[in-house]
Amino acid sequence: MQRRDFLKKTAIAGAATSMTPLMAKSNKKVKLKLATSWPARFSIMGTGIEDFEKNVKKMSGGSLEIKVYPANSLVPALSVFDAVSKGDIDAFHSGPYYWKGKNLAFSLFTGFPFGFTTEEHGAWMLHGGGLELWRELYAKYNLYPLMGGNTGMQMGGWFKKEIKSLQDLKGLKMRIPGLGGEVMSKLGVNPVLMAAGDIYTSLERGTIDATEWIAPAHDIKMGFDKVAKYYYAGWHEPGSMLEITFNKKVWDGLSEEHQSIIEAASAQMHSNMIFEFMAENAKALQKINTKKVKIAHFPEPIIKSAKKAFDEVVAEQSAKSDDFKKVWASCQQFLKVARGWSDLGSSAYFKVRNS
Ligand code: CA
Fold this sequence. Notes:
D-Maltodextrin-Binding Protein, domain 2, 11 strands, binds calcium ion
């Protein structure tokens, strides 16, 4: 009796094994570590990558786990590039412009002042040669990048005083990173870099006179409306792309199924993040409109000077870096073509919608 029971159980166990899904059979269980540059549950960017983690696990039937580590829990927020490049961890979620110290060209993959909108940027990446260039340059750092979201249009920032002329910008201390900061510097602003957690207090105490951050959804969470009354429309980050980047050896070592799952899950994250930014910014703007905030636009002479200053920044960086020059040429070539359609399509439509 006991022996018969034993045989029965063994037979059932054997049957269960032979019924294991094919996917799990062809893929040995893989566990990867991914570090981000955002705090845990950080709105849209942080929650987006956490959903990616869950989706990858589900899509792979549990054979692929990419555990997400928020900023500073495994490595410091801005050390993720080096850590993945060296192979200490497997992947990161961050933004290419943080690594311009490694290669000036990397800024351009995030975006640039007066440059691509989110839609145009994605078009350049996927259908205009951007992604190939990006992968070619990142390969030198033992990295394999995928698109990892886009913030959409960012605002020009919060100012304590109204900016009526170029004179009003002279000597202002402003938290503004990247190429936008370099343009502002040419207009007489002192660009300051600081950790997210220090911006509000610095603005409140007057250590800085202005700051940019992202757009209404994130800006209102930071409470900037309580310490600065002028909120300017954007020009310097018209659609900043984020990245999900793997150590190249780790990527090359994955099965085709796992690579496809990561591609699908990151594409889903990328598009969902764009729509979530749109929805949340729109809702947050309604809230800002009920507060004592003056929504403003930089006067035309400032925009003209900023464009001229950006041309100078491009000339300087092209002289310093062949990679920058090469990527810039690709951006310009594609932007020239894309804006013809954007101007006739979207811009003309906005005009009639508002008329
Ligand atoms: Ca920003």
